[in-house]
Amino acid sequence: MNIANLLKIALKALANNKLRCFLTMLGIIIGVASVITMLAIGQGSKNSIREQISEMGSNMIMIHPGNMQRGGVRQSADDMQTLTVADYEALRTLDDVAAISPSVNSGGQFVNGNNNYPSTIYGITPDYLDIRKLRVKDGAMFSDHDIHTAAKVCVLGKTVVDNLFPGGEDPVGRVVRFGRIPLTVVGVLEPKGTNSMGMDQDDVVLAPYTTVMKRILAIDYIQGIFASAADENTTDRTIEAVSDVLRTRHRIKDGADDDFDIRSQQELSEMMNSTSDMMTVLLACIAGISLLVGGIGIMNIMYVSVTERTREIGLRMSIGARGADILAQFLIEAVIISVSGGIIGIVTGVVATVLVNVVAHWPVYIRLYSVVLSFAVCTATGVFFGWYPARKAAGLDPIEAIRYE
Amino acid sequence: MSLSNEIIRVENLRREFTVGGERVKALRGVSFAIRRGEFVTIMGTSGSGKSTLLNILGCLDTPTSGEYVLDGVAVQSMSKNSRAVTRNRKIGFVFQNYNLLPKTTAVENVELPLLYNSAVSARERRERAIAALKAVGLADRLDHKSNQMSGGQQQRVAIARALVNDPAVILADEATGNLDTRTSFGILTLFQELHRRGRTIIFVTHNPELADYSSRNITLRDGRIVADTTNPAPASAREALDLLPTDND
User: Fold this and answer.
1) Which of A8, A325, A402 sits opposite B95 (nearest CB)?
2) So what's the ipTM on this one?
């Protein structure tokens, strides 16, 4: 008995029962399609999180004062004055640090003529643009010279522009007021939209940190330092280097806690990824269960089919089919059902994924492994669940089978 | 009677079953030999053991004791698989209820035994199936599906299927049992024609009338042979068919 003949026999038997064959396949189709769609949704949300994080600057390192005790009383980060411009100057010399900017900020009301708008002014250096992946659309960024002179200049985000200049006039060159301090607008930032937390990233005003420190806040420390590593892979190494420098400068003894807190986007991205990984596993479990149910459907139908075709089996045996031939025929039938169900399921899954993307605007991404995996699983399902009915068929007694009514 | 002419020889064949803890003796020592080219009817009422004998002759079953030699090969010592191969190569079955595959054309039904013989190519398979269908007078029904044919035509397809592997013996089990008188005689005529062309046929039936049309009749009762008679001048089924009144309504 060669494989070609067996295939022919099995295909013929399936063609004689098209509707039932299709209904059996349906279980597998739904199973495979849901595995692919669920994994695509899971992967899509993971990718979109990663994208948003890299928009924020994926190799960004944030340094804040932290863990400070005064006589046993822990202090809030805002009150701490441990980070200084000198710290910033020291970190700037590190090789692994690609860009670095001190950060001081203050909230307050911005006024332009009749219009006013509450926003936050960030005191930074031009490096901040690289770190946060910002770009100046109109005008230009302020210069290092402006920092030296604590110049009264600023760069506005789009939200601030919309609120202060509702008429649509060009803000560059105009003067807005922050409290009592007039600031000349030198540039407007390219809009960035909201971040993954839903925060408006365009609701900012950038100014030289010296201006904010001296003219607005009147402080001699800085509230934080933003830096970026040369690339994502060196982030850990950069964090260590930064930590070493700060511990030495702050004269922290070995074994004592840092008086600063370093955070990187990597941790955030890992946290987000683990959340979305969990969701993906959950979705895949649900989909996997439906695949299992589909497999049981195959087994059920094959059992019914064996009983229903008892006489056919008896006939085949009486004209010379061996037990192995019957076993192979039913096994091949089950595998054909599951494999073609798998292929249709993959197509359906891809279509459903595209639909989810188009209709619900959910981010999706189909990974090859999910296709290969679900296909392999459903083939294995066919073999596994086809085996027992096929064994039953092969074990029939031809004498009884041929006279079965 | 030369030995080489013997196609079937059974020697003291016994077959016992255990049904519900009770031993049932279906065959209690049956011996006979069938030569090439004989048309043998095996007759008996139900319970006479004729079905058991047919199963053993058809290599579907093995005797509890005794010897069965088919075409020079001892069958009782064969494994299950080699019996399947023997059925495929040496035996052609014709059943009472035809047992054709549903929704399958005549040619495909006839091809079936050859599908289980990998020595036969697809082309040869088709050619032989067509030839067999021509031999049973169904040259014009090659692509008719089994459910589009009458009982008599279906039985002809079944006979063609039994012929296609060029078997040593054709085993018919009540092959006319489901057919009306006219069609029965048509089928019987076909069997007589095949017999004339040299086929060995064993026809198991409970209908005593059929003994007139075979060349030899073995009668079984309670698992034993009670009569084994040769019929030197079998009646012609064709003549009987011609004598039947034709349907005018």
Assistant:
1) A402
2) 0.91
For residue A282, give the amino acid letter: L
List chain B domain ranges: 37-55+86-243
- On whether the CB atoms of residues A328 and A312 are closer than 8 A, the answer is no
Helix, strand, coil content of chain A in percent (nearest 5) = 55, 20, 25
> What CATH architecture applies to the domain B37-55+86-243?
3-Layer(aba) Sandwich (3.40)
Which pLDDT tens digit goes with each residue over A265-316?
A: 777 767 777 887 888 788 778 877 887 888 888 888 888 888 888 999 999 9
Q: Which residues contact B98 (CB under 8 A, 6 or more apart)?
A: B146, B151, B154, B155, B157, B158, B178
Give the whole-angstrom CA distance, residue A94 versus residue A246. Answer: 12
CA distance to partner chain A, nearest, from residue B119 (Å)? 9
- ∠ CA A73-A76-A82 to the nearest 5 degrees? 90
Contact at CB, A399 and B115, closer than 8 angstroms: no
Chain segment B191-215, per-residue pLDDT in tens: 999 999 999 999 999 999 899 999 9
Comparing CB atoms, the residue among A312, A321, A399 nearest residue B116 is A321
Whether B99 sits inside 8 A of A314 (CB atoms) is yes
Cβ distance of A319 and B161 shorter than 8 Å: yes
Measured in whole angstroms, the distance separating CA B59 from the mean position of its chain's CA atoms is 12
Instruction: Pick B118's closest partner by Cβ from A2, A315, A317.
Output: A2
Which residue in chain A has the smallest CA separation from B165? A319
Domain ranges of chain A: 3-52+271-402, 101-230
A2 touches chain B (CB under 8 A): yes
